[in-house]
Amino acid sequence: MARAKVIMIQGTMSGAGKSLLAAGLCRIFKQDGYRVAPFKSQNMALNSYITKEGLEMGRAQVVQAEAAGVEPVAAMNPILLKPTTDVGSQVIVNGISIGNMKAREYFAFKKQLIPEIQKAFAKLSEEYDIIVIEGAGSPAEINLKQEDIVNMGMAKMADAPVLLVGDIDRGGVFAQLYGTVSLLEEDERARICGLLVNKFRGDKSILDSGIVMLEELCKIPVLGVIPYLAVDLEEEDSLSSKFDRKKNEQAAITIAVIHFPRISNFTDFQVFEALPFVDVRYVSAVRELQGADMIVLPGSKNTMQDLLWMRQNGMEAAIKKAADAKIPIFGICGGYQMLGEEISDPLGVEGEQRTLRGMELLPIRTRLGAEKTRTLAEGRIEAIEGSLRALSHLCVKGYEIHMGESEPTQESVQNLCLLRAKQGDCSYEKRDGCVQGEVYGTYLHGFFDAPQIAEKVLELLLLKKGLDVSQIKEYSYSEYKEEQFEKLARGMREHLDMKRVYQSMGLVPSSL
Question: What DSSP state is assigned to residue 346?
């Protein structure tokens, strides 16, 4: 079987736009009739996803797989690092956690994972025509280059031509690109088939003289000046701009998402952010809760520490006060666990704290354990009460990814969902989540993405405020994402020399 053609995107820094441009290339290649897969050998992120295999991978490669129109599989992201502390991460290899490591410990260990990277890449290479590889950070980290497995180290393993991307929005793009190229070894520079200037705003002709000089200095062509494309797709979490988003004063509905220090899977709320009349506000101070129509506690990589953070800064008391005022409170995964009566950690999974009182808003008790639940799930919402009662009997679909289980502390507990899930050959049915008054909780990530759910939540919140619900048109989040992928591909085709990109891979498509 023929080996897949490859192209790699590396950046001058984190946040240069690698993930988005990789997604755009995946969609362009799909449009041109190729079967394409994304790949990132090592990803550091708190936004993760569970595949049909029941394995965990970074969401950036899931978005890229969606752009390519293929099913996400763990081989697309063989190593995922999920930060647990400032100096340590949970290490996930081929979708399964192998434990927590401090940064220095992992740095010494990671070369042992090269065979796993090669195996995952070889698997994709047998099944796809093109693989779009994404790097991480910068290839010019001279203190880390010797042990590199994600930038030029990966490019060498895959024998990949490289597009080097600089971010002009942050300033100094010529220095970024020239400095990066200068710090590379000669054989590494030879791999760069083109430079890209990303996130440009304004008249491109102003850049022309600088681009000519850059090409002369680097001896590498500039293959595109990509404008700031206003597409709405999930971001990598390390430098997400959504946390700094300004308040939307014109919004009819405000959803406040608690911005924990160790927040994870905040992509659960992307569906709301796509609507102009909704202000999704990521809050870390009590004053920012003012005016919220619904408060959401998202996932957390360290539930107990983030609960203590809320307790110390007054956020817990403010949320309890909001619940008394009949403002809907919704917890997902770690946020759901916090809403219960107690969290215990007898094995020290999250640290030295063994037992912690919960917020006591839901009649559940959570016990953390060493085994992680990883499964896709779908089901139906129970006949629930409270402001969100009109969600009763609607179907939901998503995935579970959590350490620990929650059990009721009372005989009669109102569950949120009846879920059916499949993991391998083992099918099971279970009741998930809990409802008490205006407080709701679930383990199901992606809960709001299911058809009608976000639409119905917003309708209920508007009605509660006595506002017109006609502004909610029939809405499909999956269709919305497709529109964004198409928009991204159009913008990149217009400003990127795709003919030379294809030539660098040894391809000449009929569409050019």
Answer: T
1 pLDDT more than 50:
no
Phi first, then psi: give them for residue 76, nearest 5 degrees.
Answer: -75, -15
Q: What is the pTM of this model?
A: 0.86
Closest alpha carbon to 259 in 239, 285, 278 = 285
Give dist(CA 119, CA 54) in Å, integer: 19
Q: What is the pLDDT of residues 176-215, one digit of tens each?
A: 999 999 999 999 999 999 999 999 998 888 999 999 999 9
Q: Cα dist. 240→122, 171, 230, 237, 461 in Å?
A: 32, 18, 15, 5, 27
Residue-wise pLDDT for 378-403, tens only, equals 999 999 988 899 999 999 999 999 98
Q: Which two tokens stand for residue 503?
A: 């030539």
Contact (CB, 8 A) for 228 and 238: no
User: CA 8, CA 213: separation in Å to the nearest integer?
Assistant: 24
Q: Are 245 and 34 in contact (CB under 8 A)?
A: no
Q: Give tens-digit pLDDT for 346-378.
A: 988 887 788 999 999 999 999 998 888 888 999
- Residue 487's contacts (CB-CB under 8 Å, 6 or more residues apart) are 229, 231
Catalytic positions: 333, 445
What average pLDDT does range 281-307 have in this prediction? Answer: 95
Phi/psi for 454 (5° steps) reads: -60, -40
Amino acid at 62: V
Strand duo 96-102 + 192-200: pairing: unpaired
Distances (CA, A) of 187 to 159, 320, 485: 11, 60, 34
Strands (E) across 146-209 are located at 162-167, 192-200
Classified as helix, coil or strand, 13 is coil
Return the structure tokens found at 61.
């490669």
How large is the angle between the packed helices 303-313 and 315-324, nearest 10 degrees? 80
